[in-house]
């Protein structure tokens, strides 16, 4: 699937999951294939990956320091701009906030004001993923414009323990593109 410069606008939301450490490859992949890619970086993600580095890879980067009064940078303008939103990697925290309507920062306010497809790719330790509260939040989101897409379980490095553990992994680059394109076509 080597399509390039697809005339669609992608909003990518980055949260503070350990998978964030490899996200530059995903941002680059999306910017090669889609004409417009903008990124919202959560505060926790910004602690793990410098925002200045992300700005080199995409059209625009937003953080919690965005002015809600600036008509070009507010959450409503951004959701109207985007054809689709992708939350990658998605922590239990962001899933819980969206499922419960908590809009306490720029990312959650933007996600909750979107009427277009929002693809949420969980990436967390299996223990956290299997928690009944997390599963309830995922269930709340099903049947809405929020689509939680669970990746393969795989052995990966766990930051908390410093060991290889089973975790829910983010999708391959080709799988991400396939799902984004499918959802953009459904939106027509």
Automatic annotation (TrEMBL):
Q: Do you know which Gene3D superfamilies this protein is assigned to? A: Flavin prenyltransferase-like
Identify the InterPro entries for this entry.
Flavin_trans-like (IPR036551), Flavoprotein (IPR003382)
Give the GO terms filed under biological process for this record.
Answer: coenzyme A biosynthetic process
Determine the domain of life of the protein's source. Bacteria
- GO MF annotations, alphabetized: FMN binding; phosphopantothenoylcysteine decarboxylase activity
Question: Which is one Pfam family of this protein?
Answer: Flavoprotein
Could you give one GO CC term from the UniProt record? phosphopantothenoylcysteine decarboxylase complex
Which residues does the UniProt record annotate as the domain Flavoprotein?
A: 8-154
Name it. Answer: MutD
The protein's gene is named mutD
